[in-house]
Specification:
about 475 residues; alpha+beta; Uridine Diphospho-n-acetylenolpyruvylglucosamine Reductase, domain 3; Alpha-Beta Plaits; seven-stranded antiparallel sheet; five-stranded antiparallel sheet; 15 helices; globular; binds flavin-adenine dinucleotide
């Protein structure tokens, strides 16, 4: 086929994958194993110029479209091809250069395929901090993080990926290379094109590089674990900590008892530091608290102890424990990060990535729990997430003993309607940080105002008039 021949000529024979089924599956099946497509080929360009040449060549081939892929850790199926064998997966895994660190400007410029953990490490080498952090950071790429506007565990202090990005380099659907890698914090010269590409899930252009904000490294860090009787108590505890620490409160995660029980079931090395239930057996919420400060550790630790003891006296917390060292802190984070992995081992489940104003979150969970009991009695509620951002992963696992795949197939639609109706009643969003992908297109069509969809469609048509980039993702048909 002429297209394959030309793509090999652009990127080199070794970087076009066609028939090797064992290698292809890693690109054609998504992380949750919900989507398995078949691509025309997987092509891995080694430079932004090669990405542009690949895009131009694919654009000239009738019926062919391009699916950008970074680490393939996305949770909504946006980075894998459909079944048509007419989609080229464009993997960014060879775009891994650190183009430069500017310590005075507090920025780093990296290529899109650099793994998030490597971006953090490059910043740390310059004694600076890149604060984006999420459980998939060992495999997700910065290009994928920006394309999905990823959140993670420090949004409370530093914002989403969007807030951490000052400029982009993008290959457009016309095969042109557009760059705004200037590192400017102020630039009011018209529409913000950078912000259009962030969160566009590979539908408007291919991100090839980014200039990112860096921060001073904190001198002191304290990690604490607390249990609370109710989610409302956990919200009250957070308000207390916000008042006491302001920007020094960098992360605030909540986990229900069932989610941590699942971790202990599947990862025997991980043990929760405080009981999951109170003396009469009522389940408790656990919260993971991250504090970071430019001041000394003894002061931060002392202030943390004072605030948390006051919270127990006020009844907001049942019990508290502070990590004594970095190893203990790491172990507490592992408990939180292991929840999605434990869910995967337990079997297919129904995931929701909802966001609700913090003031309504506890009422939302109570209302949604009650409504679901009528729809799926006995289903296990695995509720955890970034409480500080009002963002919970409100997930449902099949009732103990039921087949997970059957549960998903039979119940997903009814469960989603019930949860998303409740989200709407509380003024929230059905996708706080994971995006739309293939999974939530119908939801977008049903729940986003028609005027918003019309504007999004107009942007798509203007930038990618022939539907070259990820045509089955994000926007409804
Ligand atoms: C265990 C686990 C924990 C997670 N935790 C969080 C979390 O806390 N917060 C959060 O927000 N997300 C989380 N995620 C999901 C998150 O979206 C991804 O991990 C990450 O942001 C995607 O990066 P990636 O490189 O894997 O992208 P991919 O999965 O490869 O792609 C994701 C989307 O971006 C597009 N894309 C990828 N690269 C580019 C590019 N260079 N240019 C244009 N488009 C591109 C793809 O087409 C696709 O639509 C988690 C995922 C896992 C598996």
């Amino acid at each position: 086929m002429a297209l394959l021949h030309d793509l090999r000529a652009i990127v080199g024979e070794a970087h076009v994958l066609v028939d090797d089924q064992d290698a292809l599956i890693g690109y054609e099946r998504d992380w949750r194993k919900r989507y398995r497509g078949h691509s025309l080929c997987v092509v891995s360009p080694g430079s932004a110029e090669d990405v542009a040449a690949v895009v131009r060549r694919c654009a000239a081939e009738p019926g062919v479209s391009i699916v950008a892929q970074g680490g393939n850790t996305g949770l909504v199926g946006g980075g894998v091809p459909d079944d048509s064998r007419r989609q080229v997966v464009l993997s960014t895994k060879r775009l891994r250069a650190v183009r430069g660190v500017d310590a005075d400007n507090q920025t780093i410029t990296v290529e899109a395929g650099l793994v998030l953990q490597e971006v953090q490490a490059a910043a740390a080498e310059a004694e600076l901090l890149f604060p984006l952090s999420l459980a998939a950071e060992g495999s997700c790429t910065i290009g994928g993080n920006l394309a999905t506007n990823a959140g993670g565990t420090q949004v409370l202090r530093f914002g989403n990926a969007r807030e951490l990005c000052l400029g982009l380099e993008v290959v457009t659907a016309q095969g042109e290379l557009w760059s705004s890698l200037h590192g400017l914090r102020k630039d009011n010269t018209g529409y913000d094109l950078r912000d259009l590409f962030i969160g566009s899930e590979g539908t408007l252009g291919i991100i090839t590089a980014a200039t990112l904000r860096l921060f001073p490294q904190p001198r002191a860090e304290v990690t604490a674990w607390a249990t609370c009787r109710t989610l409302a108590d956990a919200v009250a505890l957070m308000r207390r900590l916000r008042a006491a620490f302001d920007a020094e409160l960098v992360g605030y995660e909540a986990m229900n008892a069932a989610s941590l029980a699942l971790v202990e079931r599947h990862f025997s090395a991980l043990r929760v530091p405080l009981p999951l239930a109170d003396a009469v057996g009522a389940p408790l919420w656990s919260v993971l608290i991250a504090l970071a400060s430019p001041h000394d550790e003894a002061t931060l630790r002392g202030d943390a102890e004072t605030a948390l003891v006051a919270a127990t006296e006020a009844g907001e917390a049942v019990d508290i424990v502070l990590a004594a060292n970095e190893l203990q802190a790491r172990t507490l984070w592992q408990l939180r990060e292991a929840i999605p992995l434990a869910q995967g081992v337990e079997g297919l489940n129904i995931k929701h990535d909802i966001g609700v104003p913090l003031s309504s979150l506890a009422d939302f969970v109570a209302a949604a729990d009650a409504a679901l009991e009528a729809v799926v009695p006995g289903a296990r509620h695995i509720t955890f997430g970034h409480l500080g951002d009002g963002n919970l992963h409100y997930n449902l696992q099949a009732p103990e003993g039921d087949a997970a795949a059957d549960f998903l197939a039979a119940r997903e639609h009814a469960v989603n309607s019930c949860v998303y109706d409740a989200v709407a009643r509380f003024g929230g969003t059905f996708s706080a940080e994971h995006g739309i992908g293939r999974l939530k297109r119908a939801e977008l069509a049903a729940r986003k105002p028609a005027a918003a969809i019309a504007m999004m469609r107009a942007i798509k048509t203007a930038l990618d008039p022939h539907g070259l980039f990820n045509p089955d993702v994000l926007l409804p048909d």
